[in-house]
Amino acid sequence: MHRYRDALPQLGGDLFLTDGGIETTLIFHEGLELPHFAAFHLLRSAAGERALREYFQRYAALAKRLRVGIVLESATWRASSDWGDRLGYDVAELADANRRAIAILGEVRGDCETAGITAVVSGCVGPRGDGYVPANTMSADEAEDYHTVQIRTFAETAADMVCAITMNYPEEAIGVARAAAAARIPSAISFTVETDGALPTGESLEAAIERVDDATSGAPAYYMINCAHPSHFSEMLPRGATFVERIRGLRANASRMSHAELNDAQVLDDGSPDELGAEYARIRHTLPNLNVMGGCCGTDHRHVEAIARACISSF
C-alpha cells in the first residue's frame, strides 16, 4: 500500500535523494539495450528485472549509508501508450509493466524502512513526444486525456505520487497535474530547459510554473528542473521570487552540452561528480526549498553521492 499520499515527507524540508540518469547507467555502464530509452522494457525478462532492482538498491544503499530520505522514481518514463505501441505492448501489457515497476520499488522501500529510512515511491510520467523537442504539442485537455491511463494505473498501486519528468511545454504539464488530481494522487512537475535557461519553446521557467499553477489552482505539490546543467539556468532564478520557492527538486545533467549535442553524442560525458556536487551546493542559496536531489544525463550513483555530501551539512 501507499504510505504518503496525504502528506509527502519531502515537503517537510529534510534532504531526499533520487537516482541519477537511469539510461546512462543501464546503457553506458551495463551495456543493456533500451529501445527508445525505455527502461521499463527490461521487465520483459528476469535478467532485465534483476538489473532494475539492483539499480535502485544501489541508491537505497546510499540513502541508508548517509541516513537521508529517498524518492524512488519508477523506470516508466516511456511507459505510456504511444511509446508502448512502438514497442509492441497492448493496453494490458503496458498497465502490467507500470504496476511491476512500482512493485519493485515497493520491495526496495521495505528494505529502506527496515533500516529506518523514509522512502517515497513515485510513478514516473514522461513526455508523450521527444523530451527535447516540443513538436506535435497537445492542448491541456488532450494531455490530460493522454496521461490519465498511466496515472490511474499508478493510483491503483503503492505509488505515493507521480512525477512528470522532462516536460518541455506547460500544456502537457497542466494535463498531467489535472489527471493526477482527478486520480487523487499528488504530482510533481519537472521542466527541462535549454542552455539559455528557457524551456525549449522559448518560454521562461517562471512563466511555465505560473501557467501550470494558475490552470490547476496550484495542484502540483512542487516543481523540479531536470536534464540541464546548473550553469544553464542558475542565473534565471531570482532569489525571493514566488516561482523559485515552488522549486523543490533538481535532477541536473553532468554534462554542459545542449540538448541537441547530447542527442548526437556517441560517447558518454559524465563530467565531474565533485564539480556537480559543488554546483548543487551553490544553487541551494538561490533555491531555498531545494531538498530533492538526484541526477539526469551522464550521472550515476557517484554523482548523487557527491551531491549529497556537498549539501548534507546545510540540512
CATH architecture: Alpha-Beta Barrel
What order do the helices and strands follow? Answer: EHHEHHEHEHEHEHHEHHEH
Cα-to-Cα separation, first versus last residue: 29 Å
Quick one: CATH superfamily?
Answer: Homocysteine-binding-like domain
Tell me the fraction of residues in β-strands, as a range: 5-15%
CATH fold call: TIM Barrel
Mean pLDDT: 96
Assign the structural class, choosing from mainly alpha, mainly beta, alpha/beta, alpha+beta, or little secondary structure.
alpha/beta
Number of helices: 12
Adjacency order of strands in the biggest sheet: 1-2-3-4-5-6-7-8
Task: Count structural domains.
Answer: 1
Helix content: 40-55%
Rounded to the nearest angstrom, the radius of gyration is 17 Å
CATH class category: Alpha Beta
Largest sheet: 8 strands, parallel, barrel
DSSP strand tally: 8
Sequence stretches where pLDDT stays below 50 over 5 or more residues: none
**Shape annotation:** globular
Describe the structure in brief:
With 315 residues, this protein is an alpha/beta fold. It has 12 helices and 8 strands.
Detailed description of the structure:
The protein is α/β, with parallel strands linked by helices. The protein has one domain: TIM Barrel, CATH 3.20.20. 43% of the residues lie in helices and 13% in strands. The protein contains twelve helices and eight strands. An eight-stranded parallel barrel has the order 1-2-3-4-5-6-7-8, surrounded by five helices. Helix 6 links the parallel strand 4 and strand 5. The longest helix is centred in the first third of the chain and has 24 residues. The two termini are 29 Å apart.
